[in-house]
Amino acid sequence: MEGKDDFDSSYGSPVLCTHLRQYEQQAGEIYTKSMFEKVRTELNKEGLLFIKGYVDDISTRTYSIGEFRKANKEWKVVFHHQTKLAACQCQLLERLGIPCSHSYTVLKAEDVQSIPECMQLMRWLKTAKINNPPQNDDQAEKVYMSKLVRIGLVNAACKSLQYLAGNSLKAYKEAMKGIHSLTLRLQSMSLTTTEQDFERNPDVI
């Protein structure tokens, strides 16, 4: 069964049926068959979405995305001009490894002609089994996320935090307390990683 799935993924050509055929065609070419079906679902869902507005920053643009006939629904998507990363607060990209419907709305608005490489998880691509040995989740995550992409995703997550922290003095104090605690933990992790790297290769310092 797995062999048949691999054959279908490598040589099959899906019939295009969504309104975003350019993305759908690319997805059919790069993703495995099972993951392509999930991508197609997100492309279909994009048809009900629309842009309510956006706010520009120095290197990003934050979009507010609404859904037809669901007035109370809204998602924030941060588009990074340099990497073309569209990071959504729904975090489907982080959880499943494929762009969400909200991200496709933003990519379309920004006239991005194809799914950016930084939004393609290596282990879901047809070329993964051909070009790479089997990987555990940690290894796959390292392949998928470059430093720039990680920074972009953290920046997107902090947009909501900034807004909520500004609502009240209590919220501000709680946010600052959490940020300070997290910063100390990350600094400790960074020092530990540096020490381990030095032990493996002392000539680099």
Automatic annotation (TrEMBL):
<dbReference type="GO" id="GO:0005634">
    <property type="term" value="C:nucleus"/>
</dbReference>
<dbReference type="InterPro" id="IPR007527">
    <property type="entry name" value="Znf_SWIM"/>
</dbReference>
<comment type="similarity">
    <text>Belongs to the FHY3/FAR1 family.</text>
</comment>
<keyword id="KW-0862">Zinc</keyword>
<feature type="domain" description="SWIM-type">
    <location>
        <begin position="75"/>
        <end position="111"/>
    </location>
</feature>
<dbReference type="GO" id="GO:0006355">
    <property type="term" value="P:regulation of DNA-templated transcription"/>
</dbReference>
<protein>
    <recommendedName>
        <fullName>Protein FAR1-RELATED SEQUENCE</fullName>
    </recommendedName>
</protein>
<keyword id="KW-0539">Nucleus</keyword>
<keyword id="KW-0479">Metal-binding</keyword>
<dbReference type="GO" id="GO:0008270">
    <property type="term" value="F:zinc ion binding"/>
</dbReference>
<comment type="function">
    <text>Putative transcription activator involved in regulating light control of development.</text>
</comment>
<keyword id="KW-0863">Zinc-finger</keyword>
<dbReference type="InterPro" id="IPR031052">
    <property type="entry name" value="FHY3/FAR1"/>
</dbReference>
